[in-house]
């Protein structure tokens, strides 16, 4: 996959990078996100709690793997966790990097990680900060 294709993938997959510092506007992207837009008409109120510890706990070094069959809600749970983290005052939305991996090869993934760090370099202006990567 070429760099321009990866950049487009990051731009489409990380709409929260375009929000400002106003906490109220940080989650405005959820109303138009392709995985969440149907909630307006069909919301039953259920939210998977599998990522609650990540979404509400301290940002640190960890690797969490969620495995399961296709079409059971793993991606929606991931996006819900990102939305919750975007609403936190201690998290800069540019620290949150979502990468859909369907169709990526190993070399694409390595390049995507390097490119993702470069695209979020503005987070490190004051001091180096970590990223929270969500591989989907």
Describe this structure in words.
The structure is a single chain. The relative contact order is 0.20. With 136 residues, the chain is mostly helical. Strands 1-2 form a two-stranded parallel sheet. Helices cover 35% and strands 6% of the residues. Helix 1 packs across helix 5 (106-119).
Average of per-residue pLDDT values: 88
Tally of extended strands? 2
Judged by helices, strands and strand pairing, the structural class is mainly alpha
Which strand order does the major sheet show?
Answer: 1-2
Given the C-alpha coordinates, what overall shape results? globular
- So how many helices? 5
Q: What amount of the residues lies in strands?
A: 5-15%
